[in-house]
Write a structure and sequence with these properties.
Elements lengths: L1 H27 L2 H80 L4 E7 L4 E2 L12 E4 L2 E9 L4 E5 L8 E5 L4 E6 L4 E6 L10 E4 L10 E9 L7 E6 L9 E4 L2
Antiparallel strand pairs: 1-2, 1-12, 2-5, 3-4, 3-12, 4-5, 6-7, 6-9, 7-8, 8-11, 9-10, 10-11
C-alpha cells in the first residue's frame, strides 16, 4: 500500500505544477497566446485530417449513390413492366372491340329486312311484288345473296327488273378484294368492270363487291373476275364479271329496301 502511495505522489505533484502554471499563465495573460500558438501550429494538421476524412468518405458516398441508382433502375424496370402489361391489355380490348364490331355488322346484315318475291317472267324480267309490298325503283335485287339487278319500274303488285348485263342498267360503284375500284356496267351480253387504271393489279377469280351508293348497300356480292380486257390503245382496262347465281335459273328473288 505504501508503495502505491509513493508512486502516486510524483504524478500528483506534476499535475499540481501544471495547474499552478496554467493559473499563473492565465493571471499573467500568457495562456491565451500559447493556446493561439498551438492552434496555429495544429491548423494544417486539422485541415489534413479533414481532407483525409473526406477522401475516406468518398467510397461510402459513391456506394450510396450507386445503391440509389440501382434502386431507381429497379423502379424503372417495374414501371416498364407495368406499362407493357397495360399496353397488352389495351391491345386485347381493341381486338375484342373489333370482334364485337364484326359480330354486330354480321348480325345487322343477317337481320336486315328483305322482300321475297317470286319471278313471274324471264323474258322481260319481272317479279310479283310492287308498290303495295314496299318495292321502290332502284332497289337491289338478289339471287342467293348475289346482286343480279335493280328494280326498273313498279306497279301495285309487280316490278320489272334491269339485270346487270343489260345496257340500260345504271353504273354501280364496286371494288375488288384487293381494293381496286371501278364501275359495273352491262353491254347487253356481259357484266363489265370498267374504269380500271392501267397500273391497277386485278387477279382472275377476285371477288367483286359494292362500295355503297344511294339505294345500294355496301358489301353486296356482284361476282368474280373472269377475264381481263387490256387493249394497248385504251386508256383504261376492263374485266368480265362472272356470276355464280342467275336470275334465269331462280324462282324467287330478294329485294333489299
Amino acid at each position: 500500500m505504501a508503495d502505491s502511495y509513493q508512486k502516486f505522489w510524483p504524478e500528483l505533484g506534476i499535475a499540481a505544477i501544471i495547474f499552478i502554471v496554467m493559473v499563473l499563465g492565465e493571471w499573467l495573460g500568457m495562456l491565451q497566446p500559447v493556446v493561439s500558438f498551438f492552434e496555429h501550429m495544429l491548423q494544417p494538421a486539422v485541415v489534413q485530417v479533414s481532407r483525409v476524412t473526406a477522401e475516406s468518405n468518398q467510397p461510402l458516398i459513391l456506394f450510396r449513390k450507386s445503391f440509389g441508382a440501382a434502386r431507381r433502375v429497379q423502379e424503372l424496370e417495374l414501371e416498364y413492366s407495368r406499362s407493357l402489361a397495360k399496353i397488352s391489355e389495351l391491345e386485347y380490348l381493341e381486338q375484342e372491340n373489333q370482334e364485337l364490331r364484326r359480330l354486330f355488322q354480321a348480325q345487322e346484315k343477317t337481320t336486315r329486312t328483305v322482300i321475297a318475291a317470286p319471278i313471274v317472267s324471264h323474258g322481260q324480267p319481272s317479279i310479283s311484288a310492287g308498290q303495295d309490298e314496299g318495292v321502290l325503283v332502284g332497289q337491289p335485287v338478289l339471287v342467293a345473296e348475289v346482286l343480279v339487278g335493280l328494280v326498273k319500274s313498279t306497279t301495285n303488285h309487280q316490278s320489272i327488273i334491269n339485270l346487270l348485263f343489260q345496257n340500260s342498267t345504271q353504273p354501280i360503284l364496286v371494288k375488288t378484294e384487293s381494293g381496286v375500284e371501278g364501275l359495273i356496267v352491262g353491254n347487253g351480253k356481259n357484266i363489265l368492270l370498267t374504269e380500271i387504271s392501267k397500273e391497277a393489279e386485278v387477279a382472275i377469280g377476285e371477288r367483286v363487291i359494292t362500295v355503297g351508293q344511294e339505294q345500294i348497300q355496301p358489301q353486296l356480292v356482284v361476282g368474280r373476275v373472269q377475264q381481263l380486257i387490256d387493249q394497248p390503245s385504251a386508256p383504261i382496262k376492263q374485266a368480265v364479271i362472272y356470276q355464280e347465281a342467275s336470275f334465269y335459273e331462280a324462282s324467287i328473288v330478294e329485294v333489299l329496301p
